[in-house]
């Protein structure tokens, strides 16, 4: 499991960046464009076979213990859906040491199930 920021941006097209100029003429100056129009936090859960579940955090929200516990419930459902054929009953969860990952509520949720 890992969280990452995904940035929105509109890349320049190759045609626009390849303006023709004469040999002795300087290239036209362009102002800097804002690369990112916005960003969103993505929580990604994966295993050896690929991505299991991705959650995109809504604007203005933060990841706290309650939100993370809901993510763990969604992850449990996704694992049950994608690994129906598997007899594997235990899941090893590797996560960072963020406060929401190691809170008392989260640890109780992880160790109860």
TrEMBL record:
One term of GO molecular function:
nucleic acid binding
Q: Which PANTHER family match?
A: MARINER MOS1 TRANSPOSASE-LIKE PROTEIN
Species in which this protein is naturally found: Rhynchophorus ferrugineus
Which parts pass through the membrane? none
Question: Where do the segments described as Disordered lie?
Answer: 1-37
Q: Where is the composition biased (Basic and acidic residues)?
A: 16-28
Highest taxon listed in the record's lineage? Eukaryota
Q: What is this protein called?
A: Transposase
